[in-house]
Amino acid sequence: MAKVKLTNPADVVRSDDGLLSQEAIRTAEVPALVDTGATQLVIPDEIRGQLGLTIGGYRRVRNANGQVGKLPWVGVLLEVLGRSTLCDALVEASGTQVLLGQTPLETLDLIVNPKSRDLLVNPQSPDLPLLEILASV
Known about the structure:
Elements: E1 2-7, H1 9-16, E2 27-34, E3 41-44, H2 45-51, E4 57-62, E5 68-80, E6 83-92, E7 98-100, H3 102-107, E8 110-112, E9 119-121
Parallel strand pairs: 2-7, 3-6
Antiparallel strand pairs: 1-2, 1-5, 3-7, 4-5, 5-6, 8-9
């Protein structure tokens, strides 16, 4: 489990533009199940509503029991262990567990210690996430 902070990115932009106070930015700090077998961030619909996130479309998904369906997705600002990224989140029914999947873990350069099962900042890049790319720098 890890504590995550979810923020409406449109609120942040409006605040930066002086159209919304810093205190009015909608955020939620919630526990998330770190699931390296999942691909995406998954949030329940009540958090989507609380943050005022607009549905951007739908994605086909396969859940753990093999069923295929489609879920709405939203854009959200995710913060974990002091690192943040803008990412997509799939929206499940209200009351479901927040899941932190492999894509945001990779983007934030976070690792799971297999012995302790703790979520950690990659010790090889303690100051900023280090992302692997093909282009030369």
